[in-house]
Amino acid sequence: MTDVDQSGQITPSQSQIRILAQFTRDFSFENPRAPDSLRSTAQPQIELGVEMAARGRTDGLFEVDLKLSAAAQSEGQTAFQIELVYGGLFQIDGVPEEHIEPVLLIECPRYLFPFARKIIADAVSDGGFPPFLLEPIDFATVYASQRAARDGGMDQPIVGNA
User: Fold this and answer.
1) Which fold is adopted by the domain 2-151?
2) Which of 139, 150, 158 is nearest to 56 (CA)?
3) CA-closest candidate to residue 121, choices 88, 64, 87, 80
């Protein structure tokens, strides 16, 4: 059982987050220069993107999407590009309304991340490259940045409804 403190962190109480389902919503891996890109010995420059989105459903559940993208450049050319939208269906009980958004966009992505990370690592490895393991992500910081960019600091919810 969990609760949310003022910083959006989950703490023990009578609140509960349940993952009812996890799924790949969208996935793309591109290796446009294969097999030549596989022979490069240069260390690639990798640009990583992280986005989260959530929406309430009419049945009282919530869908949360974690979008991870990475583009690797080696010797000025694309080595690989990968994009994954990994989703989860969550039931959230006992969380005050004002804390639902941080729970959905911080805590729920934390649950999804290890599974999305494995999909990306396996795809990059299957594409002929050394395994690419994403570092842990500070979803609270990503949430704060996403919220500031979306509403210019105004108090508007990011979470949508079905």
Assistant:
1) Bacterial Protein-export protein SecB (3.10.420)
2) 158
3) 80
All structural domains of the chain with their residue ranges: 2-151
The pLDDT of residue 158 is above 70: no
Separation between Cα atoms, residue 108 and residue 144, nearest integer Å: 15
SS (H, E, C) the chain: CEEECCCCCEEEEEEEEEEEEEEEEEEEEECCCCCHHHHCCCCCEEEEEEEEEEEECCCCCEEEEEEEEEEEEECCEEEEEEEEEEEEEEEEECCCHHHHHHHHHHHHHHHHHHHHHHHHHHHHHHCCCCCCCCCCCCHHHHHHHHHHHHHCCCCCCCCEEC
> What is the model's pTM?
0.80
Closest CA to 116 of 34, 39, 44, 49: 49
* Interval 51-72: pLDDT, tens: 999 999 999 999 999 999 999 9
